[in-house]
């Protein structure tokens, strides 16, 4: 049976590949049989010509026999499709300008979707490379109630990780990790790099073989003090060690630890980190032992580890969640017994659950992931607009070819064959657009990855099978969508009428279809441009918002001891030297030690205020400690009262400055000046409120219940602070390297400083609005351009169709201005209809996008009015050109044309 199938397949392949040879062999065989039959008649005395005639009659027709033989090969359908494609290709080659325009239009739409899918796939759908059985692997999330609201966290102390590993029964394995910036190297070669500290079980999640050496073992990751070993990231190995194989056994300082290199991770191995490919991997126990002065295995206040778990086979997600929650509650109760300040389990109601391995689909998904989803939808709308535009062009082409199509139908071409030929043309155009779209996605994908995946290594669209499949599906969909209108028009045409019609008779059906497609383009463009306007306004709002401090001229200086052991007194002295050195640098206006830094490190303590029960229910209060020049350095304005100064030293009465929002929250309707606060404990000394400052944004741009209070650094009990804030007279970025080099001179041993402008701390918090504004504007502008071109083509076609009518109007006394107004008014009527429909859709969908906006109403009248006027301006421009051409029609020439 298989042999017969294989023989049949080879025969059919030969019939396709060697068609000409087989046709020649068939002709020779038919001629042989015809000659033998004629010879039989000639032997009976029949003349040669008559013998040949009788032979043909007896044979039943040579051509019919040849066709029957060809049909028996089973390749007729493929051959006719190839003929249709060749015919379509010849027609497109003859209209090269039309072909190029359509291919570019579809390429833009397909490329936008391919590029956005590459981003969406990595954020929301694609599992980390090499992950074994990804459906069984989950991130672990923790929930509990605090101050009446539920918190969701994925970072937990080492102690919780240990309890889950020991006591849960539903999981085959747990892995803990954290990716952070850590200094790697020594001396001038030392740089902050992305490093993943992980449990030894982390690598067991993957089918990953080290490129060199080995991964660290469980014995090297035993608590409390793991082995000082490190596995290099592949790219770091190539760039810093030249890919040498003799790196094994060499020493490399990672953070405070001098590690021995034991292996190199495979190329592009990033684990499950969302921060790109790490430069190195080291055991969590070795890192934690070097980083903490206390026993990290027992503390419950250092929540630093992300957890990943693999479910056992046959265990359902609900069962796994129940198991996690039971053990997490037990761990919570044990922690509460040792740390009485923690809320009891009955009020906290702690629970744990497994979630998708992709952060963008989990309960802590950032706004960027939701913006990516919306932008992917926008890219699809751009493809629809491109398809509508191309469908209009193909419909115009079909109308111009109506007599040709009618003639072919009259000559016996079946309507099925005609449909196939028309779809072949749209398929070829879509394939050209698809190829161009993939190239555009390859070129433009780098920019999108820089926006949405800044830490991820560049990947090629051309070699990404999943993205190519999506591009192919979009190409086929575009072929069907664009070919539908001309096919329906051709099927509905009357053959006799088309053969007898003049050049101007195109029927009303194509005009209605083209009009509907144009209205669709205007409608979708309205929706996209409104979205773009809303995100642009959001970005403007967030950039214009006063954060409570100056961003441009301030630098953050972080001290990194790198294992250099200093007593508290030595640390305070070092910080004093750094402060003096910073203040001596030309261009530095002021400097101060700082205990907290916006959007990087913040501290909160218990507050006790007379007459206020449970202060923490009034808001989230964050502590700032700074020197006498703190407010001058950061630019925070005093609303009333005074700032602390050099008089407020360690021996002076305790003082505090509160933010304006905090004053209203704790003492509503009463002046806060002179009020008493106790910080840290209800037995702490009373700190008198001496000033009220403007509110700061320290952890969130949208949290209206986040408040700040400030104390003198001299009265701060955790000295040294470990960081400085430096204000310069210009742009902070221009001073960063100068400040770093000057302060590095004062650092002892292998310790160092890092200097970062404030704007680099703040900018990431604005990323989602920047993403939305950039991508909506880009795709909205593309949609607007396509809609404008589509409107121009429709109006220009309509002018050509109505050329005789316009000539008659001019001959009867109409002015050229009347003709221009007639044409423009017709185009505007269509666009305004689309604008109205688009406005309704934009208003209705605003509630879904509202949570992604910043202090911006989804029905902002300014945005809607601006978009409407923009679309009308484009419509006027697009219709004015054919309108002016129509006004220049010569009536005498036009009336004599037919």
Structure in words:
- It is globular and about 135 Å long.
- Strand 1 and strand 2 form a beta hairpin.
- 40% of the residues are buried.
- The strands form three sheets. Strands 1, 2, 3, 4, 5, 6, 7, 8, 9, 10, 11 and 12 form a twelve-stranded mixed beta sheet that branches. Strands 15, 16, 17, 18, 19, 20 and 21 form a seven-stranded mixed beta sheet that branches. A four-stranded antiparallel beta sheet has the order 14-22-13-23.
- By secondary structure, it is an alpha+beta fold.
- It has four domains: 2-74, no CATH class; 134-357, no CATH class; 367-543 and 767-896, no CATH class; 554-758, no CATH class.
- Mean pLDDT is 83; it is low at 502-509.
- The protein starts with a helix and ends with a helix.
